[in-house]
Amino acid sequence: MTTTTTTNIGFVGLGRMGGNMAARFLAAGYSVYGEERNRQHADELVHDGLQWRDTPREVAEAADVVFTSVPDDSVLELVASGPNGILAGLAAEKIWVDMSTVSPRASRELAERVRTVGATMLDAPVSGSVPQVQSGTLTILVGGDKAAYARVEPLLRELGTPRHVGENGQGLLLKLAINISLAVQMLAFSEGVLLAERGGLDRELAVEVMSESAIGSPLLRGRAPLLLDLPEDAWFDIELAHKDIRLALATGQSEGVPLPSAALADALFTKASELGYGHRDVAALFEVLGRLGVEKGGEPRPAFPGGAGDSE
Fold first, then answer.
1. pTM metric for this prediction
2. pLDDT over threshold 70, residue 307
3. Which of 94, 146, 175, 243 is catalytic?
4. Using a CB cutoff of 8 Å and minimum separation of 24, what contacts does 214-221 make?
5. What mean pLDDT comes out for the span 75-84?
6. Cα 108 to Cα 112: distance, rounded to the nearest angstrom
């Protein structure tokens, strides 16, 4: 199979990330078949040419390359298995590219099942959020068979910059490593801005100067404005970020690697969800810290589960 615009693409999972990926393939002239648990999420894509299919199996049967973008291990298993799952629709020579962030273990086990039907599965999680999908500037971390990667690389370049990093599961391992830093950077930046603001500095000034300083990574520069005006629609919400941190902690435990900063982020994400921020962008950590604080000069309250005071 040579990937050209005559390659049929399937997409299961058309949420914020998957829907925007499918839109880029449609704009590039590919035939795209899609399925999503909530059909309404796909209405605009159908209007733009996406060919709707009722089940993941039907998507896999129609496509040469199947993409998935789902939230976690359980949903991946749901779309993969059973008489209407992707596995039932795969055949020899087809490639399944999973762009979800799930556990490396679950992905490796699923890749073995895919091999039994003569198809190939790649894990291809991404670094980046909705703006990077829309601009085609994602970083894509691919684990799995090199020959299969070579066949789908032109497709992945429609979405960003792909890089083959190793065997099945290793793309996910690297993604979890990146997302530890994402969470911790966002937390530290929020702490610093709150400290500056509570000390009398203008928040906008603090955000501007800090994001332009030596700590101003692309992540912080991109999200800095969200500390001034937190959007209702998250680029990457706290629940998903928390899921990734917990996957990283579980992987670290299995590999014997201590992850103290990830454990701290885990505690803050837990508190954020308790305060109702689960579906807000990770930049909401700034507001969460603000609610955990006290008036200047007062005694600080414990911020984390196991010693949390009343935050209302």
1. 0.87
2. no
3. 175
4. 215/189, 217/185, 219/182, 219/185, 219/186, 220/185, 220/186, 220/189
5. 97
6. 6
Q: pLDDT tens for residues 90-126? A: 999 999 999 999 999 999 999 999 999 999 999 999 9
Give dist(CA 206, CA 129) in Å, integer.
24
pLDDT per residue over 204-230, tens digit each? 999 999 999 999 999 899 999 999 999
296 annotated active-site: no
- The amino acid that residue 52 corresponds to is W
* Alpha-carbon gap, residue 67 to 69, rounded angstroms: 7
CA separation for the pair 115, 240 (Å, rounded): 29
Residue type, 157: R
Structure tokens at 92: 């020899």
**3-class SS string, the chain:** CCCCCCCEEEEECCCHHHHHHHHHHHHCCCEEEEECCCHHHHHHHHHCCCEECCCHHHHHHHCCEEEECCCCHHHHHHHHCCCCCHHHHCCCCCEEEECCCCCHHHHHHHHHHHHCCCCEEEECCEECCHHHHHHCCEEEEEECCHHHHHHHHHHHCCCEEEEEEECCCHHHHHHHHHHHHHHHHHHHHHHHHHHHHHCCCCHHHHHHHHHCCCCCCHHHHHHHHHHCCCCCCCCCEHHHHHHHHHHHHHHHHHHCCCCHHHHHHHHHHHHHHHCCCCCCEHHHHHHHHHHHCCCCCCCCCCCCCCCCCCCC
